[in-house]
User: Which sequence fits this backbone?
């Protein structure tokens, strides 16, 4: 269910890192909790983001939720598709609906995030 090569946060974000490049998104669990997603607010390319700080928000019919960056770095790309089709987050949160790509400034931060198995245990304990 949750990709093994991703790292996860307790706030329900994921990062897939290769070298000093990371792709960030929200988890399937997060999109289920939010319900139908209607709007996504993302940072501008070039924005420096710190781990644990808000990088944008996701708005659903239920609520607006901040998205917290799992890593620190500079935003190199945003997913333009989500501006026109935010509902993609409901159908493919671990694939086509990534939020931003970041050039990692502190790759060692990845070690502090959860593995897929740890994340699954975490959300299982939440219920």
Assistant:
């Amino acid at each position: 269910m949750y990709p093994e090569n991703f790292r996860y946060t307790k706030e329900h974000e994921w990062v897939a890192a290769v070298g000093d490049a990371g792709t960030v998104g929200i988890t399937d669990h997060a999109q289920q909790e939010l319900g139908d997603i209607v709007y996504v607010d993302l940072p501008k390319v070039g924005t420096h983001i710190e781990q644990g700080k808000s990088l944008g928000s996701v708005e659903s019919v239920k609520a607006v939720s901040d998205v917290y960056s799992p890593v620190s770095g500079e935003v190199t790309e945003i997913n333009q598709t989500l501006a026109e089709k935010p509902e993609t987050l409901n159908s493919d949160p671990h694939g086509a609906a990534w939020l931003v790509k970041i050039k990692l400034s502190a790759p060692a931060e990845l070690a502090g995030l959860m593995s897929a198995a740890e994340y699954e245990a975490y959300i299982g304990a939440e219920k």
About this structure: The mean pLDDT is 96. The chain has one domain: 7-122. The radius of gyration is 13 Å. The chain is about 20% helix and 35% strand.
